[in-house]
Amino acid sequence: MKMNSLKAAAAFGLTVLLANTAAAQNSAASSPVGYYTETLQTGFNVIGVNLFNAALASGTLTGVDGAVVTDSSADFVSLLNDDQATYFLETPAGVVAEIDSVAAGGEITLVGAAGLAVGDIYTIRAGMTLEQIFGDTLTQGATDATADVVFVPTGEAGNFDRFFRSSVGGGEFRNANDAFVSLDKPVAILSTDALLVERKDAAPVDVVVAGAVKTDASVVNLPQGFYPVTVSGVVGSTLQNSGLADNLQAGTTDATADVVFVPGEMPGTF
């Protein structure tokens, strides 16, 4: 099916890894694990989140009513009971939806309808947090003026929430707009989003991210404008074989076509 163009402000589906997976109901599916290293240099860096927390539950949806989905055989109240975690529901087709709340009877309320249907296979995992991704590697500061800053996409093109490690808060992440107030809960990253990191320190630093490997598709819903995206490709992936050409608007020049910005070797270059 031909996808609508991003210039028209429509969403498109980006399959970054395609492998159908079967999952038993209410069991946590096992995934391969690994790690990767990102080097942050002085200036602005783009970092993708390519590894994830282990699956906590998986099964098949038995009911769908808008943003409310159900697996009648599941006990999500017991499974998803960490009030400091942000949980996401995923499907092999690439849907990734944040979970707002759970209730008895295997009921889940999502943050907005996700186009799911009865019979869809799902997996649930907690989102990777800034603490998990960066650990204690980033430079702290009393405010974002001196600290390294992480720009987290809000879901609207060109808009970011900014976070930094607070030296007056024991190194905890805080919102740059409210530098002297602790966050209510850790910041979790949507698995398809990329992050921008402003490195203030003159010395480069390595960020080592560990976690589970996601082996199925991801759908990236892009608004019109600029939006950073994590593309988790296999070894040997290129723009030519990525499948992007099937989803992006073509043009005689970049003035009318959708444009992919690939990070260069130096921070802030593409």
Structure description:
- It is a single chain.
- This protein has 270 residues and is mostly beta strands.
- Helix content is 3%, strand content 29%.
- The longest helix has 5 residues, at 130-134.
- It is globular, with a radius of gyration of 19 Å.
In terms of structural class, how would the helical and strand content be classed?
mainly beta
Q: What integer is the average pLDDT? A: 82
Helix content: under 10%
Helix-strand pattern: EEEEEHEEEEEHEEEEEE
Distance between the termini: 30 Å
Oligomer: single chain
Largest pleated sheet: 7 strands, antiparallel
The DSSP helix count reads 2
Which stretches of 5+ consecutive residues score pLDDT under 50? Answer: 1-29
How many DSSP-defined strands?
16
Strand order of the largest sheet: 3-9-6-7-8-5-4
Strand percent estimate:
25-35%
